[in-house]
Amino acid sequence: MGKTIVLFDVDGTLSEPRKKSKQDMREFLQELRKRVTVGIVGGSDLKKIKEQLGDDAETAYDYLFSENGLVAHKAGQLLATQSLKKHLGEDKLKAFINFTLKEIAEVEIPVKRGTFIEFRNGMLNVSPVGRNCSQEERDAFEKYDAEHGIRKDLVEKLKTKFADFGLTFSVGGQISFDVFPNGWDKTFCLQFVEKDFDEIHFFGDKTYKGGNDYEIFESPKTIGHTTTGPEDTMKQCRELFLS
Ligand SMILES: [Mg+2]
């Protein structure tokens, strides 16, 4: 076997979604590390990933990429960090936020609450109804949006207005959409490993188009594997790397 790294998504791949990984999985990954290099690539931040994979997550795996690699650790050492603020700069960021708030102010929907833009390290989350609406208001907005295309229209306007900013818009969930720079999906982490390995395997559960594993699964730089859950991940890895 040449120099091989195996990268794993977290939710639905190493653990049940939003849950902690089980002891048998943690032990299995240590077995696997005797044969290949093991890396983790999750969309959540480091704190959340450590809650799921254990407090020793930075050192228990050869590479740990949180926020898809915006925060990159190798053997417990911080390799690099990236952020939306650093990438876009304050002027572009402000122009985008100002315009988006103006558009939200003018959109006609049954109710509006608060927190229309949530600023995160690697993305903006934009919600026309506002993130601090109640569950009932959330359900009502989702229904209204399906009929009137509120999010779709707003995304189109922003795409046109900021065509030169190099942004990806991802509509998901009930009330919002995410905005982040092109390429800040899980393929972002590949820059830290592509020069050092002959084969890069990737395991993920949402490898279909529109899923958060799609880009890295489809990347010509990786050998992609779809898993149905932690048990299946272990089974496939045993067959591929331990037999
Ligand atoms: Mg997943």
Describe the overall structure:
By secondary structure, this protein is an alpha/beta fold. It has two domains: 4-81 and 185-242, HAD superfamily/HAD-like (Rossmann fold, 3-Layer(aba) Sandwich); 85-181, Hypothetical Protein, Haloacid Dehalogenase-like Hydrolase, Chain: A, domain 2 (2-Layer Sandwich). Helices cover 37% and strands 21% of the residues. It has helices at residues 23-33, 46-53, 57-60, 84-88, 90-106, 135-148, 150-161, 214-218, 230-242, and strands spanning 4-8, 37-41, 63-66, 71-74, 77-81, 117-119, 124-126, 167-172, 176-181, 199-204, 223-226. A seven-stranded mixed β-sheet has the order 5-4-3-2-1-10-11. A four-stranded antiparallel β-sheet has the order 6-7-9-8, covered by helices on one side. The radius of gyration is 20 Å and the shape is elongated. The relative contact order is 0.17. The model has no long low-confidence stretch (mean pLDDT 96). The structure holds magnesium ion. Magnesium ion is lined by residues 9, 11-13, 204-206.
Write the layout of secondary structure elements.
Blueprint: E1 4-8, H1 23-33, E2 37-41, H2 46-53, H3 57-60, E3 63-66, E4 71-74, E5 77-81, H4 84-88, H5 90-106, E6 117-119, E7 124-126, H6 135-148, H7 150-161, E8 167-172, E9 176-181, E10 199-204, H8 214-218, E11 223-226, H9 230-242
Parallel strand pairs: 1-2, 1-10, 2-3, 10-11
Antiparallel strand pairs: 3-4, 4-5, 6-7, 7-9, 8-9
Magnesium ion is lined by residues 9, 11-13, 204-206.
